[in-house]
Design goal:
heterodimer, A: Helix Hairpins, extended, B: alpha+beta, 54% helix, cytoplasm (chain A), protein phosphatase inhibitor activity (chain A), cell projection (chain A)
Chain lengths: 503, 82
């Protein structure tokens, strides 16, 4: 009785908790809806303004002068808007085009709002259903919640633990098996075995008859096995065939495996085909299996290591290589971007089909510090590629990422100029596999080159004027291009240049 | 010299009583706004803030007065309906 009461209180508690969770979700949805409604309203007003903006040539406005002050001013160029596309990219367009963009964004907002409304409604329904659930399972109605309490878990296992048989051990034959078998036979194959049809008329079997019958079944099963093996061409693995034959045998008929299903549970996969009937043959059969697999000439996949030349990467910021691996060449072949110098790279097309550009990135990977890292597209930002691919840029990777948005393409310009000064061979101006400077210090080199990042020379420019607009950025990149070639000989000038730029 | 006016914030969907409260507050605001605008001298300039930005656009005094009166009427109607 007391138990019942606690259960009820528990139930009420649980249901209450569930309802609370539902309500929480609903509330969260409402907050979200509010937010999105505000966004929609903002877009509405913006669109309204954009509609009326080009109507006049200029507007008298108050220009914000810091957060606290305003200045009377004039708004000209009323039909020119810069639209933030995201990630600090802006697009210059007319007011009309901006309106279209706003319309497009409003569509998205509306979609989100619809989804949120749906979710909120859904969870409101669930909350109301939870109330009903409490009434139903509260025990007052016609319904009773059936629960079974496990008092003692040991009663299930009955003392000693059951251990799985080791592979290649013969399970002991229990008398029960035979008895069950007999019963099976006596029942006249009622269990649905395909073989029992002939014996169905007999009421009793003597021991000799029984053994004869068992032997017959054994041979039959062996035949069946062989047939299965020849048919089953997909499973080349020895373990797979054994397990699949096991399944088939189970399907074959209860007469053979009926008594030994318990054994099946505990046996390993190696001996899983062994059951009460076929246990005497299992080892020979397995050997046969392995022998037979070769003459059957089943499709076999052989793996061998392909020779991959060590790649040399020089961390000059730019993605430069001294030696090209075969894979690199193959990649170039596949891409048909550049003519390859050597013809010895047997193409990968034999093994892999490249149908889409995405396949290229799946097939070709860089090896960095022993890890596989997918190749980056050459169309992507160099700086990003840098931070991922180069061995030694872990420390500067964060810096790269920080500067990425600010610098963008600037970095590649910069590095291109630096790579000349640091005796490195760029991809573009060298035939693959042959270094341009045979007497240079990179000749006998097979590992990675750790080189000081040339970027810090351009650091002073970065410390100020983080550009938000791409127009500024372009200007800066030009400046950098023109400045950097002079930098290495006279290193002091960069501060000067920085100061000059600041003015 | 100038009178700046903020557009009313978006109507928030909440429970019955807070919504009503908010609405009455808005009506009060709007009333004050109408009074202020109607008491301005003729040569005063009125600026209207573009929502979500800091720019104030110069507007016509009479036009602003009429729109704000209309807004007040709408709010009152809403309040009556609740």
């Amino acid at each position: 009785m007391a138990e019942r009461i606690t259960r009820n209180s528990d139930l009420a508690l649980d249901v209450g908790r569930l309802r609370d969770e539902h309500k929480k979700v609903v509330k969260g949805c409402e907050v979200q809806i509010e937010h999105w409604q505000k966004v929609e309203h903002d877009y509405d007003s913006l669109q309204e303004r954009l509609k009326t903006l080009p109507e006049q040539l200029s507007y008298d406005i108050m220009v914000p002068f810091g957060p606290l002050a305003c200045m009377p001013g004039k708004l000209v160029h009323t039909n020119e808007v810069t639209v933030l596309l995201g990630d600090n990219w802006f697009a210059k367009c007319s007011a009309k085009q901006a309106q279209n963009i706003v319309e497009h964004r409003k569509k998205h907002v509306k979609h989100t709002l619809d989804d949120l409304h749906k979710t909120a409604k859904n969870f409101e329904n669930r909350a109301s259903f939870t109330n009903d659930l409490q009434k139903i399972s509260g025990g007052k109605g016609d319904y009773v919640d059936i629960r079974e309490v496990v008092v003692n878990e040991e009663a299930l296992t009955k003392g000693k633990q059951r251990v799985a048989h080791k592979p290649h051990t013969k399970p002991k034959i229990e008398h029960v098996l035979n008895l069950e078998e007999e019963e099976e036979l006596k029942n006249g194959g009622g269990a649905g075995g395909e073989d029992e049809g002939g014996d169905s008329g007999m009421g009793f079997l003597s021991e000799e008859e029984l053994w004869a019958r068992l032997d017959a079944l054994e041979t039959q099963e062996e035949h069946q096995d062989e047939r299965d093996r020849t048919c089953d061409s997909t499973d080349t693995n020895g373990e797979d065939t054994s397990s699949s034959s096991e399944e088939e045998k189970e399907r074959e008929g209860m007469g053979q495996t009926n008594g030994s299903t318990e054994d099946h549970m505990t046996l390993d996969t190696h001996s899983s085909r062994v059951n009460g009937v076929t246990h005497t043959h299992h080892e020979e059969e397995e050997e046969e299996e392995e022998e037979e697999e070769d003459p059957n000439a089943l499709p076999t996949i052989y793996f061998s290591h392909t020779v991959e030349l060590k790649k040399v990467r020089i961390n000059t910021g730019k993605n430069t290589m001294l030696k090209f691996s075969e894979r690199k060449e193959q990649k170039e072949q596949a891409k048909k971007k550049k003519k390859n110098g050597k013809a010895n790279g047997h193409s990968l097309h034999e093994h892999h089909k490249i149908t889409t550009p995405a396949d290229i990135y799946r097939l070709f990977v860089d090896v960095v510090n022993g890890e596989l890292i997918p190749r980056k597209s050459i169309l992507k930002s160099r700086s990003r590629e840098n931070s991922v691919c180069s061995d030694t840029s872990e420390s500067s990777a964060a810096d790269f990422e920080e500067r990425r948005s600010a610098l963008g393409r600037t970095l590649s310009h910069d590095d291109a100029t630096h790579s000349d000064t640091s005796d490195c061979v760029t991809e573009e101006d060298s035939p693959p596999g042959i270094p341009l400077h045979p007497g240079s210090r990179f000749e006998a080199f097979s590992g990675t080159v750790v080189e000081k990042d040339p970027l810090p020379s351009s650091m002073p420019h970065l410390t100020f004027a983080q550009p938000a607009l791409p127009t500024i950025l372009e200007r800066k990149s030009e400046e950098l291009c023109t400045e950097t070639p002079q930098e290495p000989p006279k290193r002091v000038s960069k501060f000067k240049a920085a100061r000059l730029q600041q003015k | 010299m100038t009178t700046k006016r903020n557009l009313p914030a978006a109507n928030t969907v909440q429970d019955e009583t807070p919504q009503k409260e908010e609405l009455s507050k808005k009506i009060k605001e709007q009333k004050i706004l109408v009074d202020e605008l109607s008491n301005l001298k003729k040569n005063r300039r009125v600026y209207l803030q573009q929502p979500n930005s800091n720019i104030f656009f110069l507007t016509d005094r009479g036009q602003t007065l009429s729109t704000s009166k209309k807004e007040l009427d709408n709010l009152k109607k809403d309040y009556q309906d609740m």
